[in-house]
Amino acid sequence: MSDIQTEDLTIATLVHSDEYAKHFKQIAIIRTHAIYVVKRKYGYEMARIPLEQDATITYAVTWALIPMLFGALLVAGIIAIFVFGSVEAGTRIPVGALALGSIFGSVLIRGTKRHLITVRTGGRTYRWRSKAGAFKDQIASTARVIAFMRARNGIPAAPPGAPEPAAASAAGLST
Questions:
Q1: What DSSP state is assigned to residue 100?
Q2: 92-145 pLDDT per residue, tens
Q3: Distance CA 113, CA 139 (A)
Q4: 138-150: per-residue pLDDT in tens?
Q5: CB neighbours (10 Å) of residue 30?
Q6: In the 8-state DSSP scheme, what is residue 163?
Q7: How far apart are the C-alpha atoms of 19 and 38, rounded to whole Å?
Q8: Cα–Cα distance between 137 and 127 in angstroms, integer?
Q9: Does pLDDT of 168 surpass 80?
């Protein structure tokens, strides 16, 4: 065995220490031989879970449904104001607020993707889900996890010049 195979290297830090309180029971750090999960015990505690030989890591892109529904309701309410026009005479509605509300609602409808990383090891399943709206911020970390998945499962990396599937499923490795 080489030093690289025996050395425990950090692949990705998915949750930083100032966010542990918001991510209980989620994966915080992925290393080559173990994952670290945030556990609740007198504040928080990091539990080290060793990755066994048969451990599987999957990556998927999901959608945050609650913000999408809120954005749809906001846009539908603004459209209802114009279509039904049931506003009393003399009521002043700022046009700029309607425009900002419709833009905000449409952004919520379209832009609430999340990364989802699932690790199954030792008969248990551990997950990490990015915050809605932080999709672009976590692309680098998830790309390193995808590269680690490929190397661990013996799948060759993408050829040079081909787009790395950081925002899509990774060539048969995700569900």
A1: H
A2: 778 888 889 889 888 888 877 888 989 888 888 999 888 877 788 888 888 888
A3: 11
A4: 888 888 888 888 8
A5: 24
A6: P
A7: 10
A8: 18
A9: no
Tell me which amino acid residue 56 is: T
The span from the CA of 104 to the CA of 115, in Å, is 22
Is residue 103 exposed (0-12), middle (13-18) or buried (19+ Cβ within 10 Å)? exposed
Where does residue 137 rank: exposed (0-12), middle (13-18), buried (19+ CB within 10 A)?
A: exposed
**Distance of alpha carbon 173 from alpha carbon 57, whole angstroms:** 8
Q: What is the DSSP letter of 14?
A: -
The C-alpha angle 46, 134, 51, rounded to 5 degrees, equals 35
- Which tokens in the block code for residue 110? 């379209």
Burial (CB < 10 A; 0-12, 13-18, 19+), residue 90, is: exposed
Among candidate residues 51, 59, 40, 70, the one with its CA nearest the CA of residue 141: 59
Q: Which token pair is 35?
A: 């994952």
CA distance 34 to 47: 10
Model confidence pLDDT, tens digit, residues 13-54: 888 888 888 878 889 889 988 889 888 777 778 888 888 888
CB burial class (10 A; 0-12, 13-18, 19+) of residue 109?
middle
